[in-house]
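2024-03-11 09:14:02 INFO receiving multi-entity request
2024-03-11 09:14:02 INFO entity count = two
2024-03-11 09:14:03 INFO echoing inputs for audit
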Amino acid sequence: MPAHPILARIHEADRLIVSESFEPLMDHYTMDAVLVLEPGREVRGRAAIREAMKKIASYFAHGLQVTQQKMQVLEAGDTALVLARTLVSAPGMDDDVREATYIYRREADGQWRCCIDNSYGHRILV
Amino acid sequence: MPAHPILARIHEADRLIVSESFEPLMDHYTMDAVLVLEPGREVRGRAAIREAMKKIASYFAHGLQVTQQKMQVLEAGDTALVLARTLVSAPGMDDDVREATYIYRREADGQWRCCIDNSYGHRILV
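2024-03-11 09:21:47 INFO inference complete, emitting structure
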């Protein structure tokens, strides 16, 4: 079975995050996308996500690395759930392995874009 | 802040599962919904989900209980991710606490319905 097209999209998005290429990264998000910054704190929409990505890059002293160790896609029509084991690392920081949940939506142009980006998974349950 | 309407929908669906009221339960699923039966095994569509629910009820000797211990909803437009801690129990069986992931879609009639029902969460990552 060929790999789900969303997997390549996620690897591409990770490269754009690591290289701090935030303009092309925005095409990976729907206009109404939500990004979980940390449990209990979210931003909405591309403009807010782009600003948050800049701050995240600074926080990690421009050394952020993001790697998907495992991924599984469950698809229903134009909606897909990605369950991932995501390694977040940066020089001088402890590695953080997250059980991430990403929701993708296939939009009118046929492209899959992330509408809910929650790398923290169930850590947001308090 | 009022509780998200999806939370009441989930509690209602749980009651319908426990009472084996599978006809009204189907209105809680989109036509293209996917249900994860166990890691690596899924069924698609209402007819298949209804049949699977009957088998699940038999498997648990008609004593299945489903309780959501914690839930959080993340919403982006007409798509929502629910992260839950779900207790699955039945007489004579060990309790199973699952970190579940449910995806809901708000359909044209304004109703939220589940399109991806994965009570196993990251257990499907192999």
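2024-03-11 09:21:48 INFO post-check: Strands of chain A lie at 29-38, 41-44, 65-76, 79-89, 96-106, 112-118.
2024-03-11 09:21:48 INFO post-check: Chain A touches chain B through 32 residues (CB under 8 Å).
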